[in-house]
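Handover notes (outgoing to incoming on-call)

Open items:
1. Sequence-specific DNA binding transcription factor, putative: sequence verified, structure written out, both below. Nothing else pending on this one.
2. Nothing else urgent.
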Amino acid sequence: MGISPLPLLSAHLNGNGEMSESNVSLWSKLLEAQANRRLKVKKQRVATKKVRHLRCRRPRSILMKRRARLEGSRRPMNRVEKKLKTLKKLIPNNESMGLDGLFRDTADYILSLQMRVEVMQIMVKVLTGSNK
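Sequence-specific DNA binding transcription factor, putative structure tokens:
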């Protein structure tokens, strides 16, 4: 990410392996500039991550509806829970406890509906006079 310091360092050393004072100050300025550049790039990356996080493709109204729905309950319902809730609404006089009671009441209700259908079919046959 920038200039490699090793070639610069070897170019500024005098014969006994030490740098002159002017080279030391230049060297420190170079290292400081590189550090500032790295810090600047890092800040830019953090800023773009925040901006990406804030930008959303969904309209605000959808986000508000989703948030309101989630605030009402601790966690969103999965498919099975939704279907059980719908089933509880469909079964009249549902006073059962637990899933076993709900399924028992559902089976009883289905049988009673089947009996009603058979009775109505018999009534239609009698009233229309067909002996089929």
